[in-house]
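anyone seen this seq b4? input:
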Amino acid sequence: MNKKVILITGASSGIGYSTAKLLLEEGHIVYCTARRVENMRELKRLGGKVIFLDVKDERAVQKVVNTIIRMESRIDVVFANSGYACAGALETVNIDDAREEFDVNLFGVARVIKAVMPQMRKQKYGYIIVTSSLVGIVSTPMMSFYPASKHALEGMIDGFRMENKESGIKIVKIQPSFINTEFINPFMNSLNKASKAKNAEAYKKEFEFFRKSSTKLILSSPSPEKVAKVVSKIISKKNPKKQYSINIDCKLCKLIKRFLGDSAIDKLMAKTFFR
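predicted toks r here
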């Protein structure tokens, strides 16, 4: 096995944690970063280099990258996985919360990419893997700003990939839909907060249906280990695909949108979340 130096953001839970754990078990050198350092004790026990990082802090991002380069002389893989979601109808979500989503989901990824690119360009190789989402392709109700941030991320990464076609750097999006992680807890907390906001009464029925349907979907979804295996597969390939749809529903939604259009997607989402 070719041992790689890997930076993972959002490694304290869910997809990031499972991916860090798998890659450590495979023998790679993994720098595990997140705000909740206390949740990464097991990763440290497995040999992970655990570092506190808030991707909203550009200087901190650059400092972590500089540390890795100083210690390892290279960075082979970046898995930009940090994410934040707040649920609720558009009218009921606080704009500051929505701004936080964009700061983490879009600009946080941009900060990490900007920090690692000079080194990867110098190396003339590397993998930049970004966690996008099904909702970066088709929107869902009661999550308006989260899909907006992921749509923006899709556009940003597609453009970035085109800009670096000849660089030798592999730029890959992974597109999971619902994954059974502890993401459900802050997600439901944000939904409860939005349900108490001004104008929330107008969406009372929608809140009730969405709370039940989304909980059921998350709890019945694949584990984050499924995504971790895809990341492991990507970094083992000389020429990985540009994007990987993780769940079957992601692949189906792409086909429905392409061949049947937005009206079919609207009906599918209404049936999924409001029944």
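The chain is about 55% helix and 15% strand. The chain has a mean pLDDT of 94. kinda curious what u guys think
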